[in-house]
């Protein structure tokens, strides 16, 4: 009554094998990456465009930082 033995027929088919730890780790990493991409693109129609604008803004900021401590480069107004 109620014995749980794999030799009783179809019970062997019901056993779920746990995947190799390396495979499990890879699957979890892929799932996390997918969730991250979905979360970052939520509400954004053109992800590529947003990434390009972000890179361009970072490049502009780097150039401004590298231009020197003057800070306000460009034209100067003359009051007079």
TrEMBL record:
Q: Which segments carry the region annotation Disordered?
A: 29-80
Alphabetized UniProt keyword annotations: Lipoprotein, Myristate, Palmitate
Superkingdom of the organism of origin: Eukaryota
- Name it: Small VCP interacting protein
| Stored InterPro entries | SVIP, SVIP_metazoa
